[in-house]
Structures are given as C-alpha cells and as structure tokens.
Amino acid sequence: MALIARKQWHQENMHLHERQVANQQQFDADERRFIESFKTALQLLESETSQTRQGGLALLESIGEKYPEWQSTVVRTICSFLQQPLPPGVKIPDPEETPSTNWLETYQERLQAINILIRHLPINTESARNSFIEPSAGGWGHHPWELAKAVIPTLELHGKELRGADFSGSTIINPIKINSSKLSGVKFTDAALPKGVWPVNSKLVDTEFDRASIGYLSISQSYLSQATFRDTSFTGPVIVGTETKLKMGVDFTGAQYERASQFRGALVDKDGWGNKIPGWIPRTDPEEGPWHRLHPESTTGKANQE
Question: What pTM, to 2 d.p., does this model score?
C-alpha cells in the first residue's frame, strides 16, 4: 500500500510540475508576443504621418484588450502620448479661426487617445441601475491617468467611474460632460477648461479645480464632497443647484466670477464641515430633513446674486 501511495504521489507531482512548466512557457510566449506588438505600436506612434500614429493608438487598444496584465502599461503609454507638446507650428485655433490641416490631424489623434482611455473605464455601478445610460463593457479596471499639462480635445463620461486622474495644468478644449458618473481623487488644478464643466446626476469626491479657468459651470442632481474651487476663475455662468447636495469640504473661497454666481437650490448637509460658499448661507427647512437649502447671505447679497 505504501508503495502504491508513493507512486500515486509521484505521478500527481509530475503532472503538477508539467502543468507549471506549460503555464510558464505559455506566459513566456505571451510576453514575447506582447513585447513585439508593443514595440510595433511605439514605432507607429513615432511616425511622421497622422494616419500611421492613429494606427499605433488602435494597436495599443487591441494590445490592452488581448493582454489584461499589461493594461496599466498601455494606459501609461497613451497618457504619455497625450502629454506630448503640440507639434512645431501647431496651435489651438481661436474660435474665429479656420483650423489648419495639421491641427485637425493632431486633434483627431488626441481625440482617439482620450476616447480609448474613457472607453475602458469601469462602469459606475452606483448609478447604472438608476440611469437610462447603458455604459459600454470592456472595463480595464482603475489605472491612474497622468495627464498633467496635456492638450485634450474632450472629456465625456457617461456612466463611468474615474479615479486618480491628474489633469493639472491641462487644456481641455470642449466641455467636460459628466453624466451618471463618479469622480474621485481627480485633479484639474490650474487647468484651462474654456467650455466649462457640466456634471449631471454624478458624484464628485476629492476633486480639485483650484486655480483653474472655467467657462460654464452647471451642476445639477449631483453629490459633492471635498470638491474644491479655490481661487478659480469663472468666465461664464455658475449654476450649482437643482437638488445638488454639498456634503462636506466644498470650497469656493477666492473664486472670481465674471457673472453673478447662482447657488440657489443647492443643499448643504447640516452635519457637514468645511463647506465654504462665500455669499451664500444654509437656511433650515424642516421638509429637507438633514439638508439645508442655500440662500443669499443678505438682502444686498441677494440683489447682487440675482
């Protein structure tokens, strides 16, 4: 019996060893194929022609889909592409200018790059079941976006969750549209956002817009906590309300407005701390439960706000 048991144990261990060897060989083969494909993508991104660079971005996306263990590398590479300075002689056109061909090519490349990143963000499960938006599948998980000082065509999040993204000092050309999504640990510090920020039915947690330049700010049916707009310059309307809840640490200290700001309708948690909305104070309303609706601080303030 002992001899039979030893023989069985030996056979089982041999099978286990063979599986381990086969798995390692498969991993090594996958790694070699990844490296070859990744090198090809990098070579395409360094091409002098826009169409070839777009092919490199498409190849990077397919690599991320095929090799999940390398998705973080793919995300970092696409972020680095977006952080590259604009090509010599290429600049963001003024609104009244006719865009040059070189700018249109650069714009299209960067639009493709940011859309790849957005497309593979995780679904925001908190709002997905309560929203009519159908987020796309194929999420790659949470990978930090290092996009400081990048030039980005747009940022449209529909039913997504974005964590740990750094847009500090970046320029985002078109409106930032945040619909049924969640942002946490995201920085827009010192960013130029000329077309504004429009969150709807979304959560902004630990999100910084300090010293940014923002066009239109419209926040509705959303939840903010530790969202700061300190020393931010607003060049267009600022409307924060329509059942938007400010939990704690929402700070507009030092914000500069070219038009009168409007926080009427926003709700502040009575137990929240650190909310600083100059010119606006919470007024107790028994019907609102733990939330207090914001009103102009004084009669004079009311006249100025309206």
Answer: 0.85
